[in-house]
Amino acid sequence: MASQEPQPFHWRYPELDDRDLQIRGRTLFSIVVLVAFILLITLLFIYARWVCRLRLLLSASSDLPHAPPSQPQPQPPQGLHPSTINSFPIILHNSSTMKTVDDSECCICLGIFQNEDKVKVLPKCHHCYHSDCVDRWLTAHSSCPLCRSSLRADSPV
Q: Cross-referenced SMART domains, in alphabetical order (predicted)?
């Protein structure tokens, strides 16, 4: 009995053995394209989620105080040196010498010049202001309040 040859495997249920099920040509190509498309869309979705999470983490870490700034912060405008401000000429206002409307009003405080007011004349543009008004302005800015021409010594006229 040991010399008995093994029997080949046969289905016990012949109704499950469908020899007519064959995938060829266009059907096979369509299935492969559909599976590849679904795989591609899935990979793109996973990549998009990864990029969004990375951006969220980077923006959250930039809000921390120890994180370096992404762009250099602009320096606040600096005014003129006090010695430069004091070098500008001061005149006493006289309504008979000031002929134009521009020369009769301080554009900083909008006050009208009275006789004997101390008026400072800016050298490059010759605009006039109350001495106290323009001194405060020039400690924070380096330009004329009216025409914005630079009053720095190294700037062109």
A: RING (SM00184)
In this prediction the pTM is: 0.47
> Which residues, 6+ apart, have CB-to-CB distance to 106 below 8 Å?
112, 113, 128, 129, 130, 133
Which numeric CATH code is attached to 82-140?
A: 3.30.40.10
Closest CA to 91 of 51, 123, 45: 123
89 Cβ contact partners less than 8 Å away, ≥ 6 residues apart:
120, 121, 123
Cα dist. 72→69, 79, 82, 101 in Å? Answer: 7, 21, 28, 44
User: Which two tokens mark 58?
Assistant: 């980077």
Nearest to 113 by CA among 103, 121, 122: 103
Tens-digit pLDDT profile for the chain (157 aa)? 556 777 776 666 666 555 666 677 888 889 999 999 999 999 999 999 999 999 888 887 765 555 555 666 666 668 888 888 889 888 888 877 666 556 678 888 988 888 888 999 888 888 889 999 999 999 988 889 989 888 887 755 5
What residue ranges do the domains of the chain occupy? 22-62, 82-140
